[in-house]
Amino acid sequence: MRIYSTVYDDLFRVYGDLHWWPADSKDEVVIGAVLTQNTSWKNVEKAIERLREKGLNSLAAISKCDVKDLAETIRPSGFYNQKAERLIALSKALMERFGGIDSIHDLETAVSFFSPIKGIGQETLDSILLYALDLPVFVMDKYTARFLDRCYGIRGGDIKKDVEGEIKDVERLKNLHAMIVQISKDHCKKVPECDGCPLNTKCEYYGRERRQNAFLHDKD
To answer: Signal peptide: which range, if any (predicted)?
Structure first.
């Protein structure tokens, strides 16, 4: 059974193509992937807009930026001193080795370059690979693990590898991740808001809750 294609189709009927990641360039995707760590996307948008206003929304510009100036510019993203240092280090390394992100074309090269860089964890790396470099990887995050477990009973194993084995199209991989994040923000939160969720009739968690509530009601 092509379970992840089923998940995609279920979500697509609700959300369609979300056209995620919102960015004006590949550079902005990389910048956003670092800025979004430990903060909301709304805060990242504020920081990126400030970067645009100062002409600092490229890796080339950031590589030449003063740490204090960059930190102040990206202040809305939180942890701004740390993120400024990491963005500058990443940008300098990338510009020195490749001259720009457009020179990175294959997965092996990208992984070998980005993985050792401080502050580039697996989720950030996968976001860059998928959304900036258009490479067929799946972004596995806390939203995905929670949603797939609750709604479809998918847990354990290597979900990331399984998704990549089933779904090869880059645009579908992008949109699957985006849709999972969206429904996680709308309904499948840490404390789920199942009422009104468009997938609650398919959801294993919701079904269990309803059966449990019905059982308790019958006992009363």
So the answer is: none
Domain span(s) for CATH 1.10.340.30 in the chain: 26-132
Q: What is the pLDDT of residues 137-149, one digit of tens each?
A: 999 999 999 999 9
Distance CA(144)–CA(78), nearest Å, equals 24
Report d(CA 7, CA 79) in Å as an integer: 35
Residues 12 and 39: beta-carbon distance below 8 Å = no
3-class DSSP assignment, residue 38: coil
Tell the CATH topology of 26-132: Endonuclease III; domain 1 (1.10.340)
Residue 1, classed as helix, strand or coil, is coil
Q: What is the pLDDT of residues 70-105, one digit of tens each?
A: 999 999 999 999 999 999 999 999 999 999 999 999
Q: What is the CATH number assigned to the segment(s) 3-17+139-208?
A: 1.10.1670.10
Half-sphere exposure of 47 (CA within 13 A, CB side): 31
Residue 143 near residue 184, CB atoms below 8 Å: yes
